[in-house]
TrEMBL record:
Signal peptide: none annotated. The keyword Lyase applies. The lineage of its organism: Bacteria, Candidatus Eiseniibacteriota. This is Tryptophanase. Residues 46-422 form the Aromatic amino acid beta-eliminating lyase/threonine aldolase domain.
Amino acid sequence: MRFPAEPFRIKVVEPLRRVSREERVRHITEAGLNIFAVPADTIYVDLLTDSGTSAMSDNQWAGIMMGDESYAGSRNFYNFQKAVRDIFGYPFVIPTHQGRVAENLLFSTVLKKGDIVPNNIHFDTTRANVQHQGAEAADLVIDEGLDPSSLHPFKGNLDPAKLDRLLTEKKGRVPLVMLTVTNNSGGGQPVSLANIRQVRVVCTKHGVPLFFDACRFAENCYFIQQRESGQANRSIEEIAKELFSYGDGCTMSAKKDGLVNIGGFLAMKNEEWSKAITNLLILIEGFPTYGGLAGRDLEAIARGLREVLSEDYLAFRTGQVAHLGDLLDQAGVPIVKPVGGHAVYIDAKRFLPNIPQSQFPGQALVVALYREYGIRAVEVGSLMFAQPDEKTGEMVYPKLELVRLAVPRRVYTTEHMRYVAESVIELFRDRDKLRGLRVTYEAPVLRHFTARLEELAPEPATR
């Protein structure tokens, strides 16, 4: 078998509606060529994100029926707190309604203008939350992490030499180091235990705490088990506990490896930071034992965090994503290799070499996938990350121009993945028909969520 069969049976199904190409053209045009603004019920296979799109288990649904909606001291909070402490090992646990709130609470408490936060590669909301405080988000991934064709097994690694140099040169300006596991913006690539130990040594040398963006921690730990020397005979939970032992805290969107549709948390060792963050939490989110969530949601997270450690589940999960990547790779479609844990990333620069980054090749591909096949993906490239240089005003484009096919957990079958592969392959054969785009409206922050675009006119034929 190319990958393990589903380690679950299907009890409930949700109908999918196939809409005509004409209807899809109308919807994407009305949306200003922004896939975020397209109605979800016009999409056949939705690979926009793996965040909050998981199918929950019977065990989680049973837990939801046991929700204790007491304002303070809900029993579900204590189940949730125990699960986080057992797996992550941090004593202070602060629930939030999703991961970006955890980021906002952390950064608004510990950052000041002019600070720097290093990371392997910040994702969009993390970067925006850093910059919102007037701080700088520095990406220090290893060089192989910026090469889509490199087969390095841990392309998410943060370069310890780059980190040491930054902490030396910018002494006093770095209140914490972040490490994203897996590295979403770099193709869903994992970080090795060996690298985490090296980063910890550098952080200790400079007296700077290390925090993890832990939303896909179980997938990262599975790759460690499968790829890293000396880890094959360890359980996912054992690896996770060691991984987090090198940190001082973490933020997490439980909408990924918590296997739920809403929720997140912030956990840490620093009691003073925890007190300050909790005071802010009460102001903007809710009481410390619910943090913007219903008791039933806390229970679902507590159960999901334990379920996600199943090796049978993780083998299927990563195998299904790898299968999609293999189908595309065998047909010559340029993708980021090795395939990541939660998504296949198409290299839009090589897919559409005739469209410059200033014309958003990744977004052009996203639009075509929906228009022609009813598939929703997301651009992780110039629309998401390009920014003007603060000194020169010249637009700085990201080194990676990607389209992410993010696979929801326990939702789609192998046949869905084959449909996606066949659609992308067919579009690749007709790629010369695609045109670049230009922005007609953009917000000052996180513009890709609400931007409006239009297609550029075709180049005049030359004699």
